[in-house]
Amino acid sequence: MQLVAETARYRRGEIICHQGHAADFWYTVVRGVATRYVIRPDGRRQIIDLLLPGDIFGFTLWREHGSTSEAIAEETIVTRYPRCRTGQLLGSQSDVAQSVCEDVINALGRLEDHLLVMGRITACEKVGAFLIEIERRLAGQQAGIMLPISRYDIADYLAISVETVSRTLSDLRHRGLIQLTGPRAIKIVDREALEAGDGESSRTNPWRRAFQ
Amino acid sequence: MQLVAETARYRRGEIICHQGHAADFWYTVVRGVATRYVIRPDGRRQIIDLLLPGDIFGFTLWREHGSTSEAIAEETIVTRYPRCRTGQLLGSQSDVAQSVCEDVINALGRLEDHLLVMGRITACEKVGAFLIEIERRLAGQQAGIMLPISRYDIADYLAISVETVSRTLSDLRHRGLIQLTGPRAIKIVDREALEAGDGESSRTNPWRRAFQ
DNA sequence: CGCGGCATTGACTCATTTCAAAGGTGGTGG
DNA sequence: CCACCACCTTTGAAATGAGTCAATGCCGCG
What we know:
- The structure is a homodimer of 212-residue chains.
- Chain A is an alpha+beta fold.
- The first copy, chain A, has helices at 84-91, 94-118, 123-137, 151-158, 162-174, 191-196, 206-210, and strands at residues 6-10, 15-17, 25-31, 34-39, 45-51, 56-57, 68-71, 76-82, 145-146, 178-180, 185-188.
- In chain A, strands 1-8-3-6 form a four-stranded antiparallel beta sheet. In chain A, strands 2-7-4-5 form a four-stranded antiparallel beta sheet. Chain A has a three-stranded antiparallel beta sheet with strand order 9-11-10.
- Chain A is globular and about 60 Å long.
- Residues 201-212 of chain A have low confidence and may be disordered.
- The interface between A and B is large, with 46 and 45 residues.
- The first copy, chain A, binds a DNA duplex (30 and 30 nucleotides) through helix 5.
């Protein structure tokens, strides 16, 4: 008999795996929330991935992890699998392999979505796109969403300053695009405008005319 | 006998696979350069991935591609594989499966690197990090690198304006961090400063003190 | 109660965008 | 062969959006 998987419970702030440490495992979130981030030489933190239940992470071809993963929510539960078995896993049971493969492609999709959000121009667009992304990934909530992360985390996820995040959310609220019943409790009112990233619905965007 | 792979040759500007079209294949670049991008509703283009020989792309769980892939260089050669066979492929020959799996994880790494470059603050840092990334991926060139893409492509890759790209390159040249022997021919002189993203090496960054 | 972390808001500065113009290059066709 | 055109590149000047610095309020917890 051989060890295949281990499940562990983390509290808010606890490290799941550390940048620079041996990449002996890959992981999936079972419950809770986690972030995967890189600390830059200048001390800034860039959140690369926001991990919700079902999300897979920790894949790398290197011997060491290039990023740190940290639990964000109390009671975050993560299952880890020995990396050495990944090859065998893919070679043997084709149904499990299929599933893991899909999860990896999902991770690819998450990163692409993140990239597209970061590629937006204004802070309004970024925050708006972030809210829509979160709502989509938290599908199941009926009315309103509960932000899984703090303003600071949003800032580091979008690579903008905390003040700008806060200001933008206030702005979106004043303009009636969202409702804020609490710092974490948000309800999307005007999804269209949010997707379009309307800095202001007036003053027509010249691009929109040029490209239909 | 069954069709497994097809190789095709594309000229600069030709589309390899189109956003919204059936995702029946996945691809690898054999020779040349390609980009994978998304056209936003407002007409802007975001380059998601820069594809060099050996790079794999086109993986998705959706029935349609979410992005368009376009050849950038004349004589770009791409091999495509039917998606339906991917499962069998991974299930059967474990050595090929291993290789494809590594390529997918490489694609993951490319996206993460891209994300980190985009997460930089100033245009100087972004362009500098981009140049270093390109140099790394083009490893093999001895002295200097030949940019595989235009200023416009760099702009859409970094989500900054063309003018800023051009200005920044001029600035880096004037400050002696790089040499520009032609629009595409670049030589990195001061790699340290480029990595640090020195807007100016003076005026110490407070962060650097706080975090060692 | 007081502390630490989180959130909000204001004022100022400045980098980047935007608008505008001009030079360079390669390809195509007359 | 040359002219023209489309595209790429560079630079300038003005406008503005986001970062930075600073202060305050909020809340949970020891």
